[in-house]
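Data card: per-record layout.
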Amino acid sequence: MGHAQNSRTPIGSVSCSTEDWPGDVEGRGCFVLALRTQAPQFWQSLNEMWRARDPAALDPWATAHGVVDLWFQQVIADTVTAWEHDPEGPNAQLASNHPWYYLHLETDHPNFEPKLTKPYLTYEYDHPEIPREAIFKCSGETASEILKACRVETPEDLEVRLTAEFKAQLKEYVRKVRAMITHRNSPERYKHAQWTARVFTGSTPADIAKGLYEGYEEPEKAVAVAVRRFARSIGLTMPTQTRRPVGGKPA
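The structure for this 251-residue chain is written out next.
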């Protein structure tokens, strides 16, 4: 799953590499895009803060607007940096038909580094009278008995054992990677991202449900469940109901 981080770090110094396993990377892209289309006031507010040219204002702005997760803080920091590099560009100027934000989807995550418990030929020793630690002190007939009590792993057994261990670790790694990239090119997924963006910036499930007609027996509940699941999948901490909506009045 995602990594909601409530402990605050100055937003200008965060790095997504601090998260060993990020959430659904494509889902995060959908959410940030949905903020652009469904709640442009979020980016407009950030841009207004940036134009004031007060570097110390960025962290308080992020806290006030509910940006508490490391990956989301990184998007905000990268966006402001991009605006600084090209202040007259279309994104910094919030031109229509441009994204405005900067999102780097190639989030760091661990490489696949399998660790085999015994990556070598093993043997079993079972002698009723001679302990294992006495093996190298014996000679003659005793040594012969010891050799009979040893069963060296065959190359075939070695291959089966190491292959099974490798496959188990690879399966777990692929499971985590799959959790990062899910629901590829899904219209339903993007719809849920849009709902989440609206709720994140002050709307309620009831507000969104008013626009739903067919296919939902309990539209308000359907919206709330979809938003909760989507937010969890991308590692997004949702604001409380009492937080002030971006650009609006206290709820």
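Known properties of this structure: Confidence is low (pLDDT under 50) at residues 1-20, 247-251. The chain has two domains: 11-110+182-234, 123-179.

See the next section for split statistics.
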